[in-house]
Design a protein that fits this description.
- The protein is of the alpha+beta class.
- The chain has 3 helices and 4 strands.
- A 4-stranded mixed beta sheet has the order 1-4-3-2.
- The chain starts with a helix and ends in a 5-residue tail after the last strand.
Length: 126
Amino acid sequence: KKIKKAERRKKRKKRKRQLRQIEDPNKACYQPPSALQVDINPELTTKKMPKLIKEPIVNFYGFIQKTTGMYMNLTEEKSDDSEDKVEVINYGFHDTEKGKDTYCVIHKSQGKRKSQRQWRMKNRIF
């Protein structure tokens, strides 16, 4: 009985901690697992995107990782495991000059890499 009570107490404390983290707006509510994260060239998120995209996003890298993780989680059941898979994702960004929607293209990584990330983003916005 003592063990079960201790386990329940630990679970309650953990749940309270998780709720506090969600209530804190400075902390991330969702961090996708590494298998759903995208390998992104830092130049794209630090130099190219801020110039080409109208939206004032402070952390493009974090935004893309979280949005892609949620998208991949939702479409995971429908997808097949083919090696040459490509996804076109609309992150809701708009071009600064024309105001048109922009898209990012991600593809499944070929071969084994040091990174555990299965997906890689093209170094370009379409």
